[in-house]
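I am going through a labmate's work and have reached the protein record below. What it holds is a sequence and that sequence's fold in token form. Please read both lines and tell me whether the tokens look consistent with the sequence. Do not assume that whoever made the record got everything right. Thanks in advance; the entry in question is below.
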Amino acid sequence: MLIIYTALNYDNIDRTNGEKAERFEWLDITQTVSNSLSMGSDRIWSVIETHSYYDKDFDQVQLVIVHPQNEPVPPKEKWDINTINAKALNIELSPEGDFLGYEWDFIDRPPTIGDRLMTAEPIDHSTQFREVPRDWVVSKVEPYERSSDAPYPLIRLCWCVAYREPIAV
């Protein structure tokens, strides 16, 4: 099953030491509250909440909310994850299940088979970016629905294949 770890507040992330706000891994077991883990550095994080998402066959994806161990946990209304208001979280995966990226869906528009993954590159303007196509195309979308009051109503696993430029003849 895919486990998605996310920090409850992004200000807690120490990017200079390699920590990430989200982390993804495949495990055979679910995480439980109080488990300890790393978000990319030597600092220990604790599992604060877990949320299960299921597909039509009852396969599971787990969203795990974490916070630095031994630091006070703020009230839920101050958690960054509860202020995102996304309709879905789209997880982009290679055919082997390697993590390619993720995006929040704010308008409830699921990816379409054949969609090319995009990334953003900065331009000369300090707050603007341009979209750049990546070398991956969506080949299958698997929706997983929440079973509790989880932050996102839906998690979609977007399986992707390598994009090949058409050859002119």
